[in-house]
Write a structure and sequence with these properties.
Blueprint lengths: L4 H7 L6 H7 L3 H7 L7 H22 L5 H11 L2 H10 L14 H6 L1 H19 L1 H17 L9 H13 L4 E8 L6 E8 L2 E8 L2 H17 L1
Antiparallel strand pairs: 1-2, 2-3
Helix pairs in contact: 2-8, 4-5, 4-8, 4-9, 6-8, 8-9, 10-11
């Protein structure tokens, strides 16, 4: 397994039980190919999924005092979906630390949203068991709070889909998104994305993930079109 000291530094974790983290970074194919019985990330993924749901639900509940339960559930679902979690995993280079069997290459690991999502949840589970609920809650808060704050007490609109529908209905062509810049340390990146149509930039947006920044850019473009 690659040296995970850098990952600990990124997450600001001083591990008590390193084996928990090694387990969280072991893909099931490692045991299948090696014909061994080393523990993999599946049980820790279960724990991490539950911890994430609790922590993010708590963040949303306290951030939006008047948000309807249905919208709270929509926002939580958006934040814990595969694309979002795999994006967070990529922001801390989690794929570099995952070990797998010969049947799953390193490139396949890095490209797989599902594997990255599962390992991200497993790491959260490992941190919870190793560091306790207060520590892992603060870590989750530092990762998700800014994206939680980007949503107002309104319908959880998919602004990208809405913008695409408007542009295609009017012009029968699609918009596209480009990375403008990224900044901040590996564990706390901020992305700026632009949305363009026929090489004309309609708007830019920011977020802690590229997907969140794209949503923000689409939202800003829709605002401009309504003026």
């Amino acid at each position: 397994m690659p040296n995970i000291e850098e990952l600990f530094k990124t997450l600001k974790v001083k591990p008590h039980n390193v084996k928990l983290y090694e387990m969280a970074l072991t893909h099931p194919s490692y045991n299948a190919d090696a014909n061994t019985k080393h523990s993999d990330y599946e049980r820790l993924e279960y724990m991490g999924d539950a911890v994430l749901d609790y922590a993010i639900a708590d963040l949303i509940f306290n951030e939006y005092k008047d948000m309807a339960p249905g919208n709270m559930s929509k926002l939580r679902s958006y934040l814990v979906k595969s694309k979002t979690l795999s994006s967070y995993a990529r922001s801390i280079n989690l794929g570099e630390y995952i070990i797998s069997g010969h049947s799953v290459t390193k490139d396949q690991v890095k490209q797989s949203d599902r594997i990255l999502e599962d390992c991200f949840e497993a790491i959260i589970g490992a941190i919870y068991l190793d560091q306790g609920i207060n520590f892992v809650f603060e870590l989750i808060k530092s990762i998700f709070l800014e994206d939680v704050k980007k949503f107002g007490n309104e319908d959880m609109t998919d602004y990208k889909s809405k913008l695409q529908e408007e542009m295609q209905a009017e012009f029968r062509e699609s918009v596209h998104y480009d990375l403008v810049s990224e900044s901040g340390p590996a564990h706390d990146r901020t992305y700026v994305m632009s949305v363009s149509f026929n090489d004309i930039v309609l708007a830019t947006g920011t977020g802690k993930t590229k997907k969140a920044a794209e949503q923000d850019a689409a939202k800003n473009a829709l605002k401009k079109r309504s003026v």
